[in-house]
Amino acid sequence: MSVTNDQKEAFKLRLKQFALRTIKLFQALPKTGEAQIIGKQMLRSATSVAANYRAACRARSGNEFFSKLSIVVEEADETLFWLELLSEAEIIHSERLQPLINEATEILKITSSSRKSAKQQ
Questions:
Q1: Are the C-beta atoms of residues 79 and 19 closer than 8 Å to each other?
Q2: Class of domain 5-120
Q3: Model confidence over 50-72: pLDDT tens digits?
Q4: What is the pTM of this model?
Q5: Which stretches of the chain are DSSP H helices?
Q6: Beta-carbon neighbour count of residue 116 at 10 Å?
Q7: How far is CA 60 from CA 40, 57, 68, 80, in A?
Q8: CA distance 5 to 20
Q9: How many angstroms separate the CA atoms of 3 and 118, rounded?
Q10: For the chain, what are the domain ranges?
């Protein structure tokens, strides 16, 4: 089953909203050294998810699409790691992070599945 342009656009918007939510989280982090270091890592990876998905949608070949989508998967997984670390280090209460962790997990599942389909084609 092929993905429509409307579905691509909707997913691009979803990823941009995810990036914006992580920006707001970063802005709310404590100003301690560890919170800022982890927060910056999270911010870089979360915004990279959205940016690289946009690039994948503009890919000139199947190989380029697969390559960009692979970056999206890696960055989504990394974002999930930093969110988990913020929670487990008790920098931010886990209840506050859970919606973002859930969204990162869903994004990772969707993009991993898409990458697997792209590889099979």
A1: no
A2: mainly alpha
A3: 999 999 999 999 999 999 999 99
A4: 0.92
A5: 5-28, 33-57, 62-88, 94-120
A6: 11
A7: 31, 9, 11, 29
A8: 22
A9: 11
A10: 5-120
